[in-house]
C-alpha cells in the first residue's frame, strides 16, 4: 500500500501522545488590552545568580485573529524586540525571544515589516497559519541578527531568508510567547527552505537544570539522544501537509558545533548591523 508524503507528515506532526517530547498541550492566552510582564534572566556566569530584567508586554487584539499584536515596552517606552534588545546576554550567551511556546500550534513571529516589530500570528494567502501538529520545543529568535537575502552562503550556495536567526530552545520549561531569556548556543542546523538558508540554532535557557551539563552539540547527542534528529525531522516534514516539498539541510544534514554556531550568529549580527546602518537595502523591513 502506498502512503503519501502528506499522510506521513500529518502522522509525524500528530505524535504528540507518543513522542519523547510530549506533555499536555497548553497555549498562552491573552485577552484584548491585557498587559503582562516577562523577565530576561541574564546569566553573569553559570556559577552565579542571574539578574532579572523586566519587559512589559502589551497585547492588542484577540488571540487567533489577524489583529493580534504583542508589543514590547521597557521603562514605559515601546521598544523593538528585534532592534532594541541586545544581542549578547553574557560572554558566551545570547538573548532569545520566545515567539512560539512548546506544544503550541499557532505560528507566531515578530512582524519585521511593522513599526517596533510586535509579535503577531503569521498569515498566508489571507489566512492565519497553524502547525498541523505541536512543536515540541520553545521557538524564537536572537535579536540583532538577520539572514541577508542578498548574500549567498559560500559553501551552500543559497541566499538568506530575510529573517532574524531562529532558535530551538530545548529546555524543560514551557516559555510564554514574548519571554526574553539568556541562552547557551549548542549547535545549529543549516535548513534550506524553498531555496533559502534558514539557520536553526539549538540552544538552552541558562537557568534550565541541564544547562550546566550541555556545552556543545555533542553533549546534546549524549545526554538527550534523539533530540537533534527529532528537531531535524520535525522541520524537514512540517510543511508537507500543505503539499510543500521536504525541507533540506546542508553540511550532510549534520548539526554544526558550538564554535561554528558562534560564527553563524556573529555573521548574521554583521548582516543586521549593515541593515540598520543603511549599508544594505531595507526594502519593507522596519528599521528604527
From TrEMBL:
<feature type="signal peptide">
    <location>
        <begin position="1"/>
        <end position="20"/>
    </location>
</feature>
<keyword id="KW-0378">Hydrolase</keyword>
<dbReference type="GO" id="GO:0004427">
    <property type="term" value="F:inorganic diphosphate phosphatase activity"/>
</dbReference>
<dbReference type="Pfam" id="PF00719">
    <property type="entry name" value="Pyrophosphatase"/>
</dbReference>
<dbReference type="InterPro" id="IPR008162">
    <property type="entry name" value="Pyrophosphatase"/>
</dbReference>
<keyword id="KW-0732">Signal</keyword>
<keyword id="KW-0479">Metal-binding</keyword>
<comment type="similarity">
    <text>Belongs to the PPase family.</text>
</comment>
<dbReference type="InterPro" id="IPR036649">
    <property type="entry name" value="Pyrophosphatase_sf"/>
</dbReference>
<keyword id="KW-0460">Magnesium</keyword>
<dbReference type="GO" id="GO:0000287">
    <property type="term" value="F:magnesium ion binding"/>
</dbReference>
<protein>
    <recommendedName>
        <fullName>inorganic diphosphatase</fullName>
        <ecNumber>3.6.1.1</ecNumber>
    </recommendedName>
</protein>
<dbReference type="GO" id="GO:0006796">
    <property type="term" value="P:phosphate-containing compound metabolic process"/>
</dbReference>
<dbReference type="GO" id="GO:0005737">
    <property type="term" value="C:cytoplasm"/>
</dbReference>
